[in-house]
């Protein structure tokens, strides 16, 4: 499949998606959101792909936000539709994939860019990264889940301050607040993400998918996370991965998982 605004490379069961609009600091226009939706859907269905790394092209930005030039003249209805469709196609979509997605935040992650990084399963930042939700400075609020996911990740008080001051965090501040898991020199960012991905590759893809589902259930309205966990735990007992994992342990050898 050909994409206009993203690049995809695949190596050792790890797919790397690079958002590729460097002259616009990788700002998310609707066409890029559509490309990302199609790519994530396809990669998640591919049993060979066990981890996805998401990054931005160039050394300056992961994603500098939703494309302001596209929505500057929108009406109430168009604005509402923009947020709803974006959440459905990309932000909620990524969060609920069974394949783990790591955000490699290689520079500015602002507005929709930070919201996209927060929709990923966890985040690793380069030392030059800057993160913020500056939407109120444009007369709007975060619309791709930022008002929900930022408090989940860094706590309500910090999220409230960050959103209503339109402030930016440095990579080190983001690490201190728990927004990113690691900070590494920019030149080492993708190698570091690949090293973490390699650790994930050793584990059961089936169990990883269920763990993501159970963890996410804690943050979903009307879901009981403990019940989701019980059901997902039980299902694992019917899989080849469970048989293989436990047998390999008892036979003192490395497990070879198939994700089934
Ligand atoms: N939407 C559309 N275009 C964007 C963009 C966005 N969110 N962010 C950057 N760009 C474009 C700029 O318009 C500029 O395009 P041009 O060269 O055709 O004029 C290009 O990307 C480079 O950006 P520029 O502002 O010149 O770079 P800078 O180094 O001076 O500043 C930022 C970098 C990130 C601080 C600045 O681009 C910025 O504030 N961007 C908007 C951030 C934002 O508010 N995001 C939330 C959107 S809801």
Summarize the helices and strands and which ones pair or pack:
Blueprint: E1 6-11, E2 14-19, H1 30-45, E3 51-56, E4 61-63, H2 68-71, H3 76-95, E5 101-105, E6 108-110, H4 112-119, E7 122-126, E8 130-132, H5 146-154, H6 156-165, E9 168-170, H7 171-177, E10 182-184, H8 189-201, H9 205-217, H10 225-236, H11 240-250
Parallel strand pairs: 2-3, 3-5, 4-6, 5-7, 6-8, 7-10
Antiparallel strand pairs: 1-2, 8-9
Name the descriptors.
four-stranded mixed sheet, alpha/beta, 260 residues, 2-enoyl-CoA Hydratase, Chain A, domain 1, binds coenzyme A, single chain
Number of strands: 10
CATH topology of the largest domain: 2-enoyl-CoA Hydratase, Chain A, domain 1
**How many domains comprise the coordinates?**
2
Order of helices and strands: EEHEEHHEEHEEHHEHEHHHH
- Principal-axis shape: globular
Major sheet size, sense and barrel closure: 6 strands, mixed
Number of helices: 11
Structural class: alpha/beta
Second rung of CATH, namely the architecture of the largest domain: Alpha-Beta Complex
Terminal CA distance: 26 Å
Mean of residue pLDDT?
97
Proportion of strand residues = 15-25%
Helix content: 40-55%
What ligand molecules are bound, each kind once?
A: coenzyme A
Q: For this structure, what is the CATH class of the largest domain?
A: Alpha Beta
CATH superfamily of the largest domain: 2-enoyl-CoA Hydratase, Chain A, domain 1
Major β-sheet strand ordering? 1-2-3-5-7-10
Low-confidence stretches: none
Radius of gyration: 19 Å
């Amino acid at each position: 499949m050909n994409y206009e605004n993203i690049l995809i490379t695949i190596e050792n069961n790890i797919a790397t998606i690079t958002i590729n609009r460097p002259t616009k600091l990788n700002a998310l226009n609707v066409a890029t959101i559509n490309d990302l939706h199609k790519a994530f859907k396809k990669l998640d269905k591919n049993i060979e792909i066990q981890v996805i790394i998401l990054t931005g092209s160039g050394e300056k930005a992961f994603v500098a936000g939703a494309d302001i030039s596209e929505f500057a003249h929108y009406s109430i209805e168009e604005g509402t539709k923009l947020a709803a469709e974006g959440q459905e196609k990309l932000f909620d979509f990524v969060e609920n994939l069974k394949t783990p997605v790591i955000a490699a935040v290689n520079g500015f992650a602002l507005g929709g860019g930070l919201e996209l990084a927060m929709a990923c399963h966890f985040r690793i930042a380069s030392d030059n990264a800057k993160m913020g939700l500056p939407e109120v400075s444009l007369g709007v609020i975060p619309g791709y889940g930022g008002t929900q996911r930022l408090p989940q990740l860094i706590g309500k008080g910090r999220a409230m301050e960050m959103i209503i001051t339109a402030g930016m965090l440095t990579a080190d501040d983001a690490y201190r607040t728990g927004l990113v898991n690691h900070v590494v020199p920019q030149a080492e960012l993708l190698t570091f993400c690949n090293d973490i991905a390699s650790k994930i590759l050793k584990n059961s893809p089936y169990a990883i998918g269920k763990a993501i589902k159970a963890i996410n259930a804690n943050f979903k309205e009307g879901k009981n996370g403990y019940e989701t966990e019980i059901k997902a735990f039980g299902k694992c007992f019917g899989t080849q991965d469970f048989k293989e994992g436990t047998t390999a342990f008892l036979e003192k050898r490395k497990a070879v998982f198939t994700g089934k």
